Backbone:
């Protein structure tokens, strides 16, 4: 691709055979649905677009939220040459050639907008190729990504761009978009017709609402589903898009979920934090979201086991066995039957008494090990299987607890530098309240043994 070849209108459909979602792509800000926090009059992105600000941009948002459409609207409003690439289909080599051409054009006073869809697909070393051109102003970079730019975009490149966060469209916005597509048939020719308004077709409100609801805020998916539904109506020789036909077109709800991306971590985080906050209903919901989106059930099972030991602990020690059993049931039964075992475990964890005392205690132990020297094991705790070891006093002074009244000897078991150090502090929750009472009893027994002179 060269900068000096004719540059077609990036939003004008080339033929009536284009998908409905492409034909209905907004050509101006007035046609754009959603993102009012950025595009309402006086909002930052609208001002930037209307003033033809030359700053480079990163659009971050879920699929179907309008990232590519905004880039093409900018292309229509600017006098710059607009070149579009997909990081999935294009290599960095050809983009470098375009940037070199852009730099030549810039020397003659021409501007170039380089739009990179799914820019996160380039690794950070490849993204470095943009840096010098963006910094010199040879190109205006507009990147679109569904992934968090903080993690996926080179920090040096990110600092040279303005990042705008797009949101999934609300259901009323999707519904309005569908109604516009149903009504739009005003093209001067079949090639210019954008919507379905020239067809003998009407739609029940319930049908459009179902499509809007099932789209999960993805405008592209909603329009594609509407187009499939319209074809089903025609194939059946009917003129009304009913809820039944819409359901046939939808088949399965699309959930915003990427098993290797941010949604994966966001939703598992929501599940874990709902359990920690004792919200069984929310925990069940997030579990259902992950399973419905196709998440690996064994990954979820492992995380549930982690919840049992991290957030429930000894307040309800049976929770760990329950979660391990749920894991085994999921492995044995598979989906969907095994999912009920995971649901049972999640509800139990949410309603169980909570304690992170062991989790905090073990964290303190690890921190202590990192910060302090590795002290030797006290002699009285060492094993003495050889004569030499006995001569070196290995095991000398050891007290066999079963021979002591109360089964608690007064001898210390920590290294000398950590004598009397407490790591585990049980809470008053669940079984741990009993453990706190037992620890107090052990302390009394040890103090009594020490006072009787039987200590090591």
Residues:
């Amino acid at each position: 691709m060269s900068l000096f070849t004719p540059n077609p209108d990036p939003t004008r459909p080339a033929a009536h055979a284009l998908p409905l979602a492409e034909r209905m792509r907004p050509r101006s800000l007035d046609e754009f649905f959603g993102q009012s926090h950025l595009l309402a009059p006086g909002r930052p992105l609208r001002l930037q677009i209307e003033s033809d600000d030359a700053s480079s941009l990163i659009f971050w948002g879920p699929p179907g939220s309008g990232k590519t459409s905004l880039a093409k609207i900018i292309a229509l409003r600017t006098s710059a040459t607009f070149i579009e690439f997909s990081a999935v289909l294009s290599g960095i080599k050809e983009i470098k050639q375009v940037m070199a051409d852009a730099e030549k054009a810039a020397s003659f006073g021409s501007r170039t907008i380089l739009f990179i869809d799914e820019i996160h697909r380039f690794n950070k070393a490849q993204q470095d190729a943009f840096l010098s051109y963006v910094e010199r102003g040879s190109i205006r970079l507009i990147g679109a990504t569904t992934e968090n730019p903080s993690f996926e975009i080179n920090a040096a490149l990110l600092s040279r761009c303005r990042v705008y966060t797009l949101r999934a469209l609300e259901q009323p916005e999707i519904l309005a978009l569908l109604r516009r597509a149903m009504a739009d048939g005003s093209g001067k020719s079949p090639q210019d017709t954008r919507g379905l308004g020239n067809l003998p077709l009407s739609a029940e409100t319930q049908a459009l609402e179902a499509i809007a609801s099932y789209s999960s805020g993805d405008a592209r998916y909603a329009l594609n589903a509407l187009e499939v539904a319209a074809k089903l109506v025609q194939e059946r020789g009917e003129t009304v898009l009913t809820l039944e036909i819409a359901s046939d077109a939808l088949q399965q709800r699309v959930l915003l979920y990427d098993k290797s991306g941010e949604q994966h971590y966001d939703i598992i985080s929501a599940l874990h934090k709902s359990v920690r906050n004792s919200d069984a209903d929310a925990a069940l919901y997030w579990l259902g979201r992950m399973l419905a989106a196709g998440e690996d059930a064994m990954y979820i099972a492992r995380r549930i086991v982690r919840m049992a030991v991290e957030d429930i602990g000894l307040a309800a020690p049976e929770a760990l066995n329950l979660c391990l059993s749920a894991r085994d049931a999921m492995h044995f039964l598979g989906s969907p039957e095994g999912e009920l075992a995971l649901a049972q475990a999640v509800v139990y964890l949410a309603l169980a008494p909570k304690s992170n005392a062991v989790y905090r205690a073990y964290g303190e132990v690890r921190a202590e090990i990192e910060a302090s020297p590795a002290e030797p094991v006290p002699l009285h705790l060492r094993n003495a299987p050889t004569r030499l070891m006995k001569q070196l006093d290995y095991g000398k002074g050891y007290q066999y607890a079963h021979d002591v009244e109360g089964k608690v000897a007064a001898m210390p078991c920590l290294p000398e530098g950590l004598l009397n150090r407490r790591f585990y502090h049980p809470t008053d929750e669940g079984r741990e309240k009993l453990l706190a009472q037992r620890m107090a009893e052990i302390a009394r027994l040890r103090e009594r043994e020490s006072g009787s002179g039987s200590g090591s």
